Amino acid sequence: MSTRRTFLKLTAAASLAPAVASAQGAGRVVVVGGGFAGATCARTIKKLDAKLTVTLVEPNKTFTACPFSNGVIAGLRELRQQQFGYDGVVRDGVISAQTSAGSIDVSAKTVTLADGARLSYDRLVLAPGIDLNWSGLPGYIEAAAEKMPHAWKAGPQTLLLRRQLEAMEDGGLVVISAPANPFRCPPGPYERASLIAYYLKTKKPKSKLLLLDAKDAFSKQKLFQNAWAQLYPGLIEWVSLSQGGKVTSVDPATLTFVTDFARHKASVANVIPPQKAGAITAQAGVADRTGWCPVEPVAFESTLQPGIHVLGDAAIMGGMPKSAFAANAQAKVCAAAVVARLAGKEPVDPRLINTCYSLVAPDYGITVAGVYRPDKGQLADIAGAGGISPIEADAAFRAQEAVYAEGWFRTITAETFG
Amino acid sequence: MRCWLLPALACALAQPGAAHAADAPPGASSCSGCHAASKTVETAVPRLVGRKPVEIVMAMREFKSGARPATVMGRIAKGFNDPETDAIAAWFGAQSD
Ligand SMILES: Cc1cc2nc3c(=O)[nH]c(=O)nc-3n(C[C@H](O)[C@H](O)[C@H](O)COP(=O)(O)OP(=O)(O)OC[C@H]3O[C@@H](n4cnc5c(N)ncnc54)[C@H](O)[C@@H]3O)c2cc1C
Description:
The complex is a heterodimer. By secondary structure, chain A is an alpha/beta fold. Chain A has ten helices and 25 strands. Chain B is mainly alpha-helical. Chain B has one domain: Cytochrome c-like domain (Cytochrome Bc1 Complex, Chain D, domain 2, Orthogonal Bundle), CATH 1.10.760.10.
């Protein structure tokens, strides 16, 4: 509890110092990263307390969302349906700094931007998402992604993988490699395998998909595997860690995946590489040796640097997975906590929900859900709640979840970008 | 109306217009990940803003017990005890567009 009290004192001091001129409770918040976590947090803070000055630092004019981007790869939707601008964020009174944050001076409480400008803050929120770990898989250097796309940040990579699939001859072998935990979107590789299988089944039925995995278990595994057996019999082969699925290196020149036991040459190669929190977190000193950022579970304030909150994929959120749903939920809780702290109040003990929808086919949706609360310094699953869609369910139930999945995407993107 | 509804409701009704997002009870801010806050979103998931708290409470009780069929709400409702659910329902009831 003594740390909590220290935080409070620091906050009180900070909001008295340079912000004295403004009305009580006012202060400056800088949010770095305009994704599901950052854009939601900036807008929510402004809605909760219009007197606060909120600046969102994000270099891209247009955000390209990853959820549903597996559908773009499979030719089921277009990339523009994934794209969102920041007009709604600005309309809510958030100041937009269209550049990236270059460095953070924790003691001066300033963020220096790539364009040289410097922003002072009373509270800083870091929500930079992930960086691909270019030294995590031998052979998979940045240039390799032009041959073996990751498509784990949506945009040109998504389209590259789609074009490669379209150009592949019928009878080709698609190979996907999935990383060890933790990584962005735990069900994502398996949704991708499903929707690529759907594409192959309908367009190139002699083709096969090999999924090489650095894990022995994965999210919604039973649901995915049952659906694969039902919808795509013999098309998808999943090779687990203990069956030799861990990829130890890749060769982009020959589109080859190397494991301890075999070499797999692909017609189309999708490498989902190991990941870490966005680079700015290491610079700010909020990332630990794992490459991710430990936070307390009430306001998601860094346990390494008081006054800096870390949200979304970059943070270690206990039982909560790295999802857009979770990032948005955390951002709303954090916004309320930041507003409370700046007003000299204690944030309330939160409850959060996560639900990850995945499509196994366009009319076949499945979910995993969880409800979370702070427990022993972490966000922990509330026992008895959450879990996966029923293992036994009829086609109408799966179709209904696919309909709700689309509604979810429209809802979460409207909540994030306005 | 049953008495378990009274405390939360009384609280919400006592402060008309005060159901500001800042006062959202624990858990409430996560519901809008699926139940759109804005009217303009096209989705099959019903809105909760402005709904009668008693309807939300009854639905949550039935989702929790399994009496009301659901794709996902059964799994979510089980994460909230009665006072938590009542507070969330009262808060949504006091929201308006
Ligand atoms: C194929 C795929 C499918 C997925 N499907 C789903 C799904 O169905 N449901 C779901 O809930 N989740 C899904 N996800 C996961 C989801 O995309 C992420 O969990 C989510 O984007 C995390 O949000 P975030 O705000 O932490 O990061 P992001 O959304 O990545 O946003 C981070 C932002 O920070 C910016 N940034 C980074 N560094 C800086 C800097 N120094 N200065 C300024 N800005 C910076 C970036 O430009 C970026 O805009 C999927 C992911 C993938 C890859």
